[in-house]
Amino acid sequence: MTAGLAVGVVLLLAGCSSGMASPASTGGTAAQGTQKAEIAISNFMFIPAKLTVSPGATVTVVNRDNVDHTVTGSSGGFDTMHIPANGSATFTAPMRAGSYPYICSIHQYMSGTLVVT
Question: Among 6, 23, 40, 109, which one has the highest count of C-beta atoms within 10 angstroms of its own C-beta?
C-alpha cells in the first residue's frame, strides 16, 4: 500500500508539473490577451505616434499636458471625448484589422495611427 501511495504521489506531482509547463509554452498568447496598450499625450504629441494592438484591445490614453485633448478616430470607430489635463480615458480598439488614423479633435494638427493586427 505504501508503494502504491508513493507511485500515486509521483504521478500527481508529474501531472502538476506538466500542467505548469503548459501556460509557460503559451505565454505569448496569454500576453496578447492581456496586452497593455497605452497612448500618452505630451507636448501636444501622441506617444507613440503609431500603436499596434490586437482587435478589441483596451487602449488607455493618458493626457500629460495642461490642456484637454481627445483621441478621435478620423473615420469614426473610437473617441475618448475630452480628456482633462493630467487625466486619462480608455477606448476599445476596432475588431477589424487595419490602420486607423486619429486626431485630437481640439488640436487637429495632432495625429497618430492605431494599427489593429
Answer: 40
Please give the backbone phi and psi of residue 31, each rounded to the nearest 5 degrees, phi first: -65, -35
The CA distance from 74 to 111, in Å, is 9
- Return the residue matching grid coordinates 485633448: 69
Note the pTM of the prediction, 2 decimals.
Answer: 0.70
Q: Which of 6-15, 30-39, 48-57 has the lowest mean pLDDT?
A: 6-15
Q: Where are the beta strands (DSSP E) in the chain?
A: 37-42, 45-47, 50-53, 58-63, 72-73, 88-92, 98-103, 111-116
**Can you give the residue range of the structural domain that contains 92?**
35-116
The CATH code of the domain that includes 107 is: 2.60.40.420
Q: Is residue 64 part of a domain?
A: yes
One-letter amino acid at 100 equals Y
3-state SS assignment for residue 45: strand
**pLDDT value, residue 20:** 36
Over 60: is that where the pLDDT of 112 sits? Answer: yes
